[in-house]
Write a structure and sequence with these properties.
Rossmann fold, 3 domains, 6-stranded parallel β-sheet, 24 helices, 17% strand
Length: 582
């Protein structure tokens, strides 16, 4: 049957099981939007019109993180495409599966500096997993099938499809295609020497007296929740996670240490510095995790499990490297061990319990103003099963410290640290799970990066709850200027020009709330969560509160600042490892 390239594109996307698209139209992409219009009216899927293309890619990103499926966004050529770049880089850094569709000027005009022409293929080449420029309409069905397969398999990532306007308009004999045959692209599952690697790993685990599981976002991508839990419990191994790994392990579990790294818990950082075996699962030894790399886990042998061979040994050479699907590798480890293994970790776990007692994460209380930690803790207390998205800064780190998240319910820009990510990502999550509570923890500076998306919330009645931790600063910038730049607060104060957020919400048709007193906190949180509308809540918190613990740049994870002085004498193990403040 004769169909246009635009029809082939949208039909092929529908055949991948896509239920939602996020996007913004423009001249070069209009043939595609005409088909989106028709498909929506047929009930094939729903399109969400954002107010800025960056929000489209962040919304698709949040959708993908929460569902584990490939997110899809659409934009036009030129500025529409370039507005996607930050979101594409965000997804690439955090290994999020996206298919990004951009319009392009007609193929015969490419290279002529035509109106709204940009080489989005070239611009995004370093920040995508793969890219296509459609040259023939006959290739569209194959390209879409390949794009979804590449985006969602192996180490996931964004895939770009750039379609010239004339190709989208051209009619041809359309034949749907779902089968994928990609020469040279192989999904890594288990390595051929898995039996040897498993044997070496189990030997190291059985010999270890101070093992530690260090788990990253790769384990979440692999859906290895049950397997990680079983491995930890079988050998009684404590578990610490990266910012991307939050939610992989029940943070209320006795073996849970929460997040490690620059703003991780003290007990997680001491554990990684004192362990004799580090089992890195789907983690990449990022600088915000390791601190000074040559002093990271200095006593430990390393087992490194990751699906991407480029990550294994990149920053730390492991004794046992295993390149493969995290879930399948951990299952292989479990299959050759007994349910009742000899446990050698009691002394180690007792030491960690002492660190938990000495250095707990506490939300301070201030009589005259709100504590940002208290606000975040209260939301976690009243909505323990909610999806939480965040922007970037102090509020992100406090949220990571004080929220206890279930699998895929923590949605945050980790690798790129993208301000303005939180609200669009929350929109994507809420579209995917309309019956679930979705809360965006933002800062007054971050929120203003994409505040126009309040209009999208209002148009589609997307009942996201936005919590602004408002201290009138770019909080983390101010903290660093205080600590490292002799309190020269260059361009970090946001009070002058700050909008009245309640009036702003009202202007967009969203419920606005202002909370300034601790006495009102519990009731305000309950009201926000009970509201049947999108809510923008402005919490005025202590202005100069800092986020601790903190590992300064160039320091090891054992050199944290902002810790209380413990009341006890250091243990023999602490003295041996050089840990603790006494």
């Amino acid at each position: 049957m004769l169909k246009s390239g635009a029809f082939a594109l949208i039909d092929s996307v529908k055949r991948q099981g896509v239920k939602h698209l996020f996007g913004y139209p423009g001249g070069a992409i209009l043939p595609v939007y005409d088909e989106i219009y028709k498909a929506e009216h047929r009930g094939d899927f729903k399109h969400i019109l954002v107010r800025h293309e960056q929000a489209a890619v962040h919304a698709a990103d949040g959708y993908a993180r929460a569902t584990g499926q490939v997110g899809v966004c659409v934009a036009t050529s030129g500025p529409g495409a370039t507005n996607l770049v930050t979101g594409i880089a965000t997804a690439q850094m955090d290994s999020i599966p996206l298919v990004v569709i951009t319009g392009q000027v007609p193929s015969y005009a490419i290279g002529t500096d035509a109106f709204q022409e940009t080489d989005i293929f070239g611009i995004t080449l370093p920040i995508v997993k793969h890219s296509y420029v459609v040259r023939r309409p006959e290739d569209i069905a194959r390209i879409v099938a390949e794009a979804f397969h590449i985006a969602g398999t192996g180490r996931p990532g964004p895939v770009l499809i750039d379609i010239p306007k004339d190709i989208a308009q051209q009619e041809f004999e359309y034949i749907p295609k779902l089968e994928v045959k990609l020469r040279g692209y192989h999904e890594q599952t288990l390595p051929p020497d898995i039996a040897i690697a498993v044997s070496k790993s189990i030997e190291l685990i059985r010999q270890a007296h101070r093992p530690l599981l260090y788990v990253g976002g790769g384990a979440i991508i692999a859906n290895a929740f049950a397997e990680i839990k079983e491995l930890a419990e079988r050998f009684q191994i404590p578990v610490t996670t990266t910012l991307m790994g939050k939610g992989i392990f029940d943070e209320n579990h006795s073996l849970a240490l929460g997040m490690l790294g620059m703003h991780g818990s003290a007990y997680a950082n001491y554990a990684v510095q004192g362990c004799d075996l580090l089992i890195a699962v789907g983690a990449r030894f990022d600088d915000r995790v390791t601190g000074r790399l040559d002093k990271f886990a200095p006593e430990a042998k390393v087992i490194h499990i990751d699906i991407d061979p480029a990550e294994v040994g990149k920053n730390r050479l492991p004794e046992v490297p295993i390149v493969g699907d995290v879930r399948q590798v951990v299952t292989a480890l479990l299959n050759v061990t007994a349910y009742k293994e000899e446990i050698k970790t009691k002394t180690w776990l007792d030491q960690i319990s002492l660190w938990k007692e000495d250095y707990p994460l506490l939300a301070p209380h201030y009589p005259d103003t709100l504590s940002p930690q208290e606000v975040i803790y209260e939301f976690g207390k009243q909505a323990p099963n909610a999806f939480f998205t965040t922007d970037v800064g102090q509020h992100q780190m406090w949220a990571a410290q004080f929220l206890k998240n279930t699998p895929r319910h923590w949605i945050s820009s980790a690798g790129l640290g993208t301000m303005g990510y939180g609200m669009p990502a929350a929109m994507g999550v809420k579209v995917a799970f309309p019956g679930d509570q979705v809360i965006c923890i933002s800062g007054d500076a971050s929120f203003q990066m994409n505040l126009q998306e309040l209009a999208t919330l209002a148009q589609y009645d997307i009942k996201v709850k936005i919590v602004i931790i408002n201290n009138g600063w770019q909080g983390m910038v101010r903290q660093w200027q205080e600590a490292f730049y002799d309190e020269r607060y260059a361009s970090s104060n946001m009070e002058v020009g700050m909008p009245d957020f309640v009036k702003l919400a009202d202007a967009f048709g969203v419920q606005g709330m202002l909370i300034t007193h601790e006495d009102d906190l519990q009731a305000a949180v309950a009201e926000i969560l009970a509201s049947d509308r999108p809510v923008l809540a402005d919490f005025r918190v202590k202005k100069n509160e800092n986020c601790y613990p903190m590992v300064a740049p160039g320091k090891s994870n054992s050199e944290m600042v902002g810790l209380p002085e413990p009341k006890r004498i250091r243990s023999a193990l602490e003295r041996e490892l050089g840990l603790g403040t006494r």
